[in-house]
Amino acid sequence: MDLHAWITQQVDATETEGRAVLVDPTPLLRRCEADRRILARHRIDTPVGAFPSCAGCGNDDWDLPNAETLNDCPELLDLAHAHGITDEILASLDRPAPPEPQQRDRRRLGLGDILATPPITTSQVPAALRGPRWKP
């Protein structure tokens, strides 16, 4: 379970408890709805070949994610704090792992194969083109 799932679980529990205990749960239900909207905006975004990042935090000027994982998202960390997360719980949550690299098809040429040039040999240079300090 990652930070997003933990907060979702806490919001569900808070809403269920509020409906059962409170006479007028309207303010609590509004807060739960606001939390769900933040959770919907700050979800995992996994572009192909990249690390899973937070879609709601966006990218910086270099087009790198501002929050590399959901567990690093400042908005979700603030929400989690409001729901009573501790350092121990945060440390126990799953950290998204980078995707496994795909095996390259050996039949397809890569950039290194295309740009590679055969070694230059000078043994076949005609005598007329050889200079006075020629070393084959």
Give the SSE layout.
Blueprint (H helix, E strand, L loop, with lengths): L2 H19 L4 H16 L2 E2 L7 E2 L19 H9 L4 H6 L18 H5 L21
Antiparallel strand pairs: 1-2
Write up what this structure looks like:
It is a single chain. By secondary structure, the protein is mostly helical. Helices cover 40% and strands 3% of the residues. It has five helices and two strands. It has helices at 3-21, 26-41, 74-82, 87-92, 111-115; strands at residues 44-45, 53-54. A two-stranded antiparallel sheet has the order 1-2. Strand 1 and strand 2 form a beta hairpin. The longest helix is centred in the first third of the chain and has 19 residues, at 3-21. It is rod-shaped and about 105 Å long.
Helix content: 40-55%
Largest sheet: 2 strands, antiparallel
Oligomer: single chain
Widest sheet, order of strands: 1-2
Average predicted confidence as pLDDT = 83
Short description:
By secondary structure, this protein is an all-alpha fold. It is built from five helices and two strands; from the N terminus they run ααββααα.
Defining key terms:
rod-shaped; 3% strand; 40% helix; two-stranded antiparallel ribbon; 2 strands
